[in-house]
## 1
Amino acid sequence: MLDFICIYPGYPMLIGILQTGEAPDVLAPTSGDYPDMFERLLADQGLSFRTYRVLDMEFPESVNDCDGWLITGSRFGAYEDHAFIPPLEDFIREAYAKAVPMVGICFGHQIVAQALGGKVERYSGGWSVGPTEYDFDGETLRLNAWHRDQVTRKPDAAEVLACNDFCENAALVYGDRIFTVQAHPEFRSEFIDGLMKTRGKGLVPDTLMAEAGARLDQSIDDQALARRIADFFKASRTAA
């Protein structure tokens, strides 16, 4: 199992949240938007946060403006033609080159892989929805999933950290510089339920949503992954 040794000083690291999507308007008043979900997930991990709405072309001036970066999920495909995607890929490559730690979740996982030479596609096997088990290098974690796109070819620089039968590149680590996860540790089960009732209609097969709905009472290991994310941000790493 890959372990991250936390040695960062006691003051809170400033994590820049690169927001690439939004929660549905009907769910946001209860769930909060994506940055709110990550701040809630990582609330007890000794981190502070600043959000940049990169989907609206609000980018940091420098990859050094924050101590680390977190790329959110999005309803967009990494391979689609959106104005924010090319500059985001440039930002990812620069952060990687300068060893500024970065975490990517779902779309964030995919756009990092694409920016660094991997391939992202709409998966022929369909959707993964709701509580799903992943093998994290011998440790089983159950996390909420909501995706059809996948990293179908990982970059050469990436090592597979987690997988299951449906998703072979479910978590990737790029040395000590980037850590990405396909699942959504920030999504609570009630938010998945809301997605199924809003965005899922007409997209996700009814039988799959029914199966996922029957699992929503299962516990999820969101805090186990929150600790992994925080430990990664705070880990000792080689300067560029």
Note: Residues 13-234 form a domain with the Rossmann fold fold (CATH 3.40.50.880).
## 2
Amino acid sequence: MDRSPVVSSNIRSIGYEAAEMLLEVEFLSGIYQYHLVPESVYLELMAAPSHGQYLARAIKGRYAYSKVA
């Protein structure tokens, strides 16, 4: 999956696969995939002033995830 680099103290890059509704986040500590994330949530994440704050508020704890690397 292609990921776009972002400016964040904890996140290196973010990618999204619309067909699978799969959000991939590369943190400094590893890569995680969040499952069944609507594209609208991904777009809001990318537009958020703070990617980390949005992720903590709207994604973590709401969507199943797995660590891939």
Note: Residues 39-47 form the longest helix (9 residues).
